[in-house]
Amino acid sequence: MDFKLTEEHIMIRDAARDFAKNELLPGVIERDEKQEFPKEQIKKMGELGFLGMMVSPEYGGGGMDTVSYVLAMEEISKIDASASVVMSVNNSLVCWGIEKFGNEEQKQKYLPKLATGESIGAFCLSEPEAGSDATSQRTTAIEKDDHYLLNGTKNWITNGSTADYYIVIAQTHPEKKHKGINAFIIEKGWKGFEIGPKEQKLGIRGSDTHSLNFNDVKVPKENRIGEDGFGFKFAMKTLSGGRIGIAAQALGIAAGAYELAKEYSKVRKAFGTEIMNHQAIAFKLADMHTSIEASRHLVMKAACDKDNGENYDLSGAMAKLFASKTAMDVTVEAVQVHGGNGYVKEYHVERLMRDAKITQIYEGTSEIQKIVISRSILRD
Ligand code: CAA
Ligand code: FAD
């Protein structure tokens, strides 16, 4: 496999790197502490094209490939994983889902605002009784004349209060099980749509996570995405791509922590020498570097599969499984390399360690990735 980057890829990666250092790094500790959404920074990311990278220029997007997207995701995640989850949901779940499966009217109406960050999107699949077991949707969308009546609760929704548009998955024909599920575009402010309190989180604390309640929300029929009963396939296909973005997020968190640990090991002295000269520390860095490189290869493979029109269910799940474990392992070791300094906020690695954990949980837990992977390899 040859993952040679083009000049354009390098430009995009460098632009994301500069943005992260200049715009996201200042204040990242305070935003984490206060659970403050990076509102101004997200606005700038939209203006720079980071929120609709893969959307066709026809709908106001950057028309870029998935490789560009994962390069940018990695750079943003090295510094601020709260900002990168907003980027990931907006790009690969909401924009991609609407562009790939929406009709022309839906694309014209929603994509130009979403692709430029003028509006933010959310993707609402999880429920109190339907997390990993996503077919067990309890939220209902019952057909009435010219609309659907939406009732139920979604939880853990990223961009829960900051979004303007929400893709909501709901059951229309319970007797048909997953084949009766639909996906709808819901707008903030519609009567009966309520946003619950903000979750108090371990990591990605700058991101905005809420439960949502729908009480007899009238959804126009034209807001259903795809044919009647397409909603579960819509969610699965969209998540297959989303998982590549989260794998890139995990890679970025790991790479960010590794770079900090490496630099620290060159300046911190113990027993009369820089700690990098103690083999125990040098070997930690060797392990970190190796698992990060392996993760990068898996992420690039999945991104290339998607760009080349190959199936990426398997490669995306493998990338997410491996990169998220790498993020966890590397960030724990990065704290260790920093000694006591690793345990306090100003050195950043404790935040990266807390942020890493979510990559093993959302967009399908590690156990769910193993289900996807094992089913795929055994079927083949
Ligand atoms: N593409 C297309 N269709 C797919 C598919 C895919 N990748 N995966 C499954 N399907 C189809 C199957 O073919 C099947 O359809 P048919 O009956 O027509 O053949 C249907 O979906 C049901 O599939 P399964 O029988 O495999 O269903 P299952 O109940 O065993 O569950 C699962 C499969 C993979 C475990 C799935 O439930 C799953 O992915 N769960 C995890 C949910 C998840 O990832 N949630 C993330 C929420 S979003 C989020 O988290 C965002 C964020 O944090 C930022
Ligand atoms: P459960 O499904 O209850 O799983 C509990 C444990 O059991 C896990 O370890 C799981 O791996 C394991 N398990 C379950 N089933 C099996 C099985 N068959 N085999 C082996 N092990 C199994 N969801 C959205 O829809 N949109 C969002 O924007 C979103 N953002 C999120 C943001 C945050 C910060 C968090 C914490 C979650 C978010 N989620 C979102 C929800 C997330 O996708 C779910 O938490 C995740 O899919 C797991 O579901 P669950 O929490 O119900 O855990």
Automatic annotation (TrEMBL):
Enzyme class label: oxidoreductase
Pfam families registered for this protein in UniProt: Acyl-CoA_dh_1, Acyl-CoA_dh_M, Acyl-CoA_dh_N
Cofactor(s) of this protein: FAD
Sorted UniProt keywords: FAD, Flavoprotein, Oxidoreductase
InterPro entries: Acyl-CoA_DH_CS (IPR006089), Acyl-CoA_Oxase/DH_mid-dom (IPR006091), Acyl-CoA_Oxase/DH_mid-dom_sf (IPR046373), AcylCo_DH-like_C (IPR036250), AcylCo_DH/oxidase_C (IPR009075), AcylCoA_DH/ox_N (IPR013786), AcylCoA_DH/ox_N_sf (IPR037069), AcylCoA_DH/oxidase_NM_dom_sf (IPR009100)
Domain Acyl-CoA dehydrogenase/oxidase C-terminal stretches: 231-378
Signal peptide: none
Family under the similarity heading: Belongs to the acyl-CoA dehydrogenase family.
Name assigned to this protein: Cyclohex-1-ene-1-carbonyl-CoA dehydrogenase
Organism: Salinimicrobium profundisediminis
Lineage: Bacteria, Pseudomonadati, Bacteroidota, Flavobacteriia, Flavobacteriales
